[in-house]
Structures are given as C-alpha cells and as structure tokens.
From TrEMBL:
CDD domains: HTH_YyaN. Residues 121-145 are annotated as: Disordered. InterPro entries: DNA-bd_dom_put_sf, MerR-type_HTH_dom, MerR_fam. SMART domains: HTH_MERR. This is MerR family transcriptional regulator. The lineage of its organism: Bacteria, Bacillati, Bacillota, Bacilli, Bacillales. Residues 6-75 form the HTH merR-type domain. Keywords: DNA-binding. It comes from the Bacteria.
Length: 161
C-alpha cells in the first residue's frame, strides 16, 4: 500500500479482514480516529488507520479487552518501550495470562489425546495379542497429565473398573 493513498471502508475491511461494522464501532468508541470523509460523505482511511486496525486485531487475538488497548494505541509505533514502563508491565502481565491459558488448554488437549488413545477405534493391528484380544500400549505420561489427572487415569485404568 502506498503512504499517501486513501481507502474506502470496504477496501480497509478487506485489507484488515475486519468487518465494516467493526471498523465503524472502533471509530464510535474512539479506538480509531474519526475517518475523514469524501464530498459524498463516504469514509476514507489512510495507511495509518489500516495499521491501527491491524494492531487492534492482534491485541484482540490475545484476549485483550478493547478498553485495555487504549494505552497501547496512544503510543506511536516507533516509540521506545523504555519510555513507557507501565505499558511494558501491562504487556508482561497480559503475556503471563496467555501463557497460563496455553497451559490450561494443553491439559485439555492431553486429556482428549488420552481418551482417543483408549478408544477402540484407535487400535492398530499391532495392539492385538496372538489370541485376538486387545492389549493397550502403555502411554507415556506428560508432566501436565501427572498434575492434572487422578492416579487411576494416569495408570491407564478407568476409575470404575
């Protein structure tokens, strides 16, 4: 995109993969500055607006609330983070929450994987003994499973057997 070029709301929405309604909403709540208008009243956006919408999108993906984004949007993109230690601390804290969420989600994935491996539909021919009976292969247990699942589940035994 060219620095001096302007974009319609439709073009901006396509470039940022954000709906036109969301762009209007960001303007309404002042996350985006009010767009300039053409003589016919249609909004026009500049490259800086597109980059700001992309930053909003990125911060949203981290789970940050729109209101929490304001301080980050007020700072110039080429600013030195050392000039804003409070923002650096906010980002570190937010990062910690994300890391915690990732660990929690990994526990869920490990649980699902364990259940899938216990299921009959996950057997391979090599899982059967010579008499045709099913012999489950022992599963290596991750540290996450060790802390999350009861001992009977970690041992590959169901609690009702």
């Amino acid at each position: 995109m060219e620095a001096g070029r302007t974009y319609t709301i439709k073009q901006t929405a396509e470039q940022t993969e954000v709906s036109e309604d969301a762009i209007r909403y960001y303007e309404k709540i002042a996350l985006l500055p009010r767009a300039d208008r053409k003589d016919n009243g249609h909004r026009i956006y500049r490259q800086e607006d597109v980059e700001r919408i992309q930053l909003i999108t990125c911060l949203k993906k981290t789970g940050m609330a729109l209101e929490e984004m304001r301080p980050f949007l007020m700072v110039s993109a080429d600013s030195d983070p050392a000039e804003y230690p409070e923002l650096v601390e906010l980002l570190r804290s937010h990062r910690g929450h994300i890391v915690s969420q990732i660990a929690s989600l990994q526990q869920v994935v490990d649980f699902i994987d364990m259940k899938l491996e216990e299921g009959r539909y996950r057997r391979s021919c090599s899982d059967e003994s010579e008499d045709g009976a099913y012999e489950p292969k022992p599963k290596s247990v991750s540290p996450v499973e060790m802390s999350y699942f009861p001992v009977s589940a970690r041992a590959g035994k169901s609690s009702d057997s």
